[in-house]
Amino acid sequence: MKAVTWQGKRNVSVENVPDPTIQEPTDAIVRITSTAICGSDLHLYEVLGPYMHKGDVLGHEPMGIVEEVGPGVTNLKVGDRVVVPFNISCGYCYMCTRGLQSQCETTQVHDKGSGAALFGFSELYGSVPGGQAEYLRVPFADYGPVKVGSELPDERYLYLSDILPTAWQGVKYADVPQDGVLAVYGLGPVGQFAARIGKYLGHRVIGIEPVPERRAMAKRHGIETIDFTKDTAEELRSMTNGRGPDAVVDAVGMEAHGSPVGAFAQNAVGFLPDKLAQKVMESGGSDRVAVLHSAIDAVRRGGTVSLSGVYGGSVTPMPMLSMFDKQIQFRMGQCNVRRWTDELLPIVEEPSDPLGVTDLMTHEVSIDEAPAAYRNFQKKTDGAIKVVLKPQGVAV
């Protein structure tokens, strides 16, 4: 089958790799009809190379049609249309039964001290082949895959695999008070949805984003927007009676612009041998923190900062004096996808499309065009906000 594979820093290629097979009785094989490039894929493309291996199959936002099921699968049958969550969870362990599927004790990657295994996301999370491919082996198929209807287009459902529940969790964790103000840093795919969800839940939402096309998309959905500058926190205070927003969602993460020291550290690690680079990242790695520090500065006293953007540094500097003095609350973590999908499925199926799931994709391309699509998305060129790959070909 064809699959998008990691070949090195800023280097992916489409290769022929062996078709997946049933390995456990609870497995299913899904023929992928749509799969998206995520901002987290860009972390593998740029920063987390020391944990990648040449030929790793990428991708963790897939959906498709069930082609085969193992003898232990009872909830799925061949022909079912499913969305596959990015974290691999069993559904029955201590963590899963408490809505913490991203910490699933059955699939935790113990040798790396990491949470649940993830599709297509480096040895940190199990080196499980991902979904940017024609077919995908799905473990724990009775629990993970979300069965969806057959009439609406893929783009109504695809984002249930990751970015929509990630944004939903980010806003829920932000704990915005009734009629409160939510600021969303970064209007990439997760930030777009976080802003729309905040609006859907009745809050005033201000999006912060340096890319004009992304601000324009958010404005279409009634979101106030401002550019990201060194004066962003002060501007947010001026828009909120001098206090700052009640809550902030950071939808940017470790590769934020405006962080030259963090950028230098990340690039320097990239020149080290993999094992040494891993040690540096695990004991001395730092993130780009311009956005995170701005969020801490901007949020009102007693407010909440919710981190949906991925951070990976071990010694990332934090302004503890300000955080303590302002009595800031923090919530964060990988999304517990299956905790939220039952809430979200009816919303994405509403005829009015209240979260605008059909107004996110900017590029739909065949899997063969994945290398160019990665470059465009990483450089934010050609208006790329959300890229969807079609492993079975683009409909004409």
Automatic annotation (TrEMBL):
<keyword id="KW-0560">Oxidoreductase</keyword>
<keyword id="KW-0479">Metal-binding</keyword>
<dbReference type="Pfam" id="PF00107">
    <property type="entry name" value="ADH_zinc_N"/>
</dbReference>
<dbReference type="InterPro" id="IPR013154">
    <property type="entry name" value="ADH-like_N"/>
</dbReference>
<dbReference type="Pfam" id="PF08240">
    <property type="entry name" value="ADH_N"/>
</dbReference>
<dbReference type="InterPro" id="IPR036291">
    <property type="entry name" value="NAD(P)-bd_dom_sf"/>
</dbReference>
<comment type="similarity">
    <text>Belongs to the zinc-containing alcohol dehydrogenase family.</text>
</comment>
<protein>
    <submittedName>
        <fullName>Zinc-dependent alcohol dehydrogenase</fullName>
        <ecNumber>1.1.1.-</ecNumber>
    </submittedName>
</protein>
<dbReference type="GO" id="GO:0016491">
    <property type="term" value="F:oxidoreductase activity"/>
</dbReference>
<feature type="domain" description="Alcohol dehydrogenase-like N-terminal">
    <location>
        <begin position="25"/>
        <end position="142"/>
    </location>
</feature>
<dbReference type="InterPro" id="IPR011032">
    <property type="entry name" value="GroES-like_sf"/>
</dbReference>
<keyword id="KW-0862">Zinc</keyword>
<feature type="domain" description="Alcohol dehydrogenase-like C-terminal">
    <location>
        <begin position="189"/>
        <end position="255"/>
    </location>
</feature>
<dbReference type="InterPro" id="IPR002328">
    <property type="entry name" value="ADH_Zn_CS"/>
</dbReference>
<dbReference type="InterPro" id="IPR013149">
    <property type="entry name" value="ADH-like_C"/>
</dbReference>
